[in-house]
Structures are given as structure tokens and as C-alpha cells.
Here is the input.
Amino acid sequence: MLRRLLQLYVGLSLYGLSTAMFVRADLGADPWNVFHLGVAKLLGMDIGTVIILTGVLVLLLW
Here is the structure.
């Protein structure tokens, strides 16, 4: 169980990092990441952090 949680968090972190790099390169964003960008701007957080927190929240609510 601990190994799977570690894999989950590493995967979410890498996903957040790659999306932040994609947005920073001014290539645009897909609809799900537009949500992340809006939340990040509203709360003054980094997009990678918002993606990680959103991913964790969605998985916990699942």
C-alpha cells in the first residue's frame, strides 16, 4: 500500500511538473488544465501544486 501511494504521488508530481512546463512555454492548455490555471491564479499558487492537490482530492473522493 505504501509503495502504491508513493508511486501515485510521484506520478502526480511529474504530471504537474510537465503541465506547468507546457503552460509556461505558452503552448496553451486543455480544458482540465484551464481549471487548474484558474484555481492557481485565484489562490496565488503554482499550477503544479494545484494539479497535485486537485488530483489527490479527486482520488480521495473517488
In short: The first helix runs from residue 2 to 24. The mean pLDDT is 87. The radius of gyration is 12 Å. Helices lie at 2-24, 31-43, 47-61.
